[in-house]
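seq:
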Amino acid sequence: MLALVLLSKDMIRSRMWLQDKLWSSSAPAQGAASLRQELSGLGRHLSAFGLSFLRVTRETVAIDAGLIEADFLESSGLPHRAELLEGLDVNDHEFEEWLTLERQHRWGFGDDEQASSVVARPSISAVPRGVRPTVILEPFKVIAGDARLDAFAQALHEEMLSLLSSMIGMIELRDATRQNAPTRGHVISGSVRNDGLLRISAQLTEPEQQLCLWSERYRFAPQEPFTVIDRIATKLVEALQLNLRDGEWVNIWAARHTTIEAWEAFHKGRVCESETTREGLAKALDHYRDALERDPGYLPALVATGFCHLDRIRMGWVPDLEKALDDVRATCAKVIRTDPEDFYGTALRAFLLNVQGETAAACELMRAVVEENAVSPELLGYYAALLGYDGRWEDEAAVNRKALTMTPYPPVWIETNLALALMFLGEKAAWIHANNVLRSEPTNVRAHVVLTVLAVQSNNQTLAHRYGEQVKQLQPGFKPEAWAYRPCFRDKAHYRFVVDALKQAGL
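struct:
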């Protein structure tokens, strides 16, 4: 009964609702009597320990959030993938049905009637998020080979390791040739043979569920094997990103051909950018500049540079605001000259409109993008963020939830933004999603900000100050006004609400 009350939106349930979930097979009068008896016994038990967090009236049962702590409100409370109310057995079909739906909602995988029409239904089974995928690279098998073919297979393995290492921070990489014991995860494997043509087969599998997520075959003339190693290796890495993390977003920038050096620098930048820290963005900019020095026309690196400048503006991390805005405007102008139809570039233009205070126009521009490309979790996440700045929190939450179901391991910032939207809506699920972010990214400042505000909303000042101290440790010199960029918000009261809550928490 305590769990049923605790997991409600405002930690309050009607007595009729509780009766229906715990005594649905009893006659109404008998169910009401059972509930009264249970509440009476619970009240006596709590009183014996001087506890007064339970509030019981003729109509409702509530918990005073300011007087309690609960494991699902703390990032260290539950291990990743822990089942909600695991082991609790209540012999009532109404309770079991509620628990099934609540477990789905816990991870945000239920149908959402608020979802925008531009969002496609998820095409894959969603799994609990919060950890990086483990990727095991097996050596490519040589079929009827010779010394030259053996050397090619070894070179392909080493190049794959090199490129995959640029994604460390997004994946846990394992080299099967150095593993002493079996490891669970996603496996990249394949074979090479020479029967007049050089034939390479490769696949990405999930052995535990017996799934083949991707497979491809390549054929080349025997005289050119070592010239194609880079090409094959990049295709394998892109397949990994497509199926596990970025979804169809990969196809947007993968269509842009560049050198292997620029490609690798770009992906190192993406890993650093995903950290959403001051230091991470600075490192990302260095990698993107490196990519552009190697290939000045590489559009994904150019657009990513613009987004880094925008993120620094939105986080209050720029010493010269006008110069930073000029940098973004210059980048947008260059992108338009290069390819005015590029989805990624259009998203950049939308966020430039947003920081200039034109949020409604930014939403419309981004909506046109996702209507054409509704299968990219990253583009949907961008659209969702703009909806939030426009004050449409329910729409933002709905679009973020769809984005999170499109790949097994979506970018962490999408779930962070979902937690923020749910916080503004007063949904208890905000705690769950913010803590889930911290399980995979313990230094995420924005998730700590969300938890700080949630604790203030719950009148739990002890917890609020604890989270506030963690924010200060993670970002020394943090100021409440710098939690976001005020002009981004159409309704400045939303920005101010968080500022005021952070000050209440001692920041």
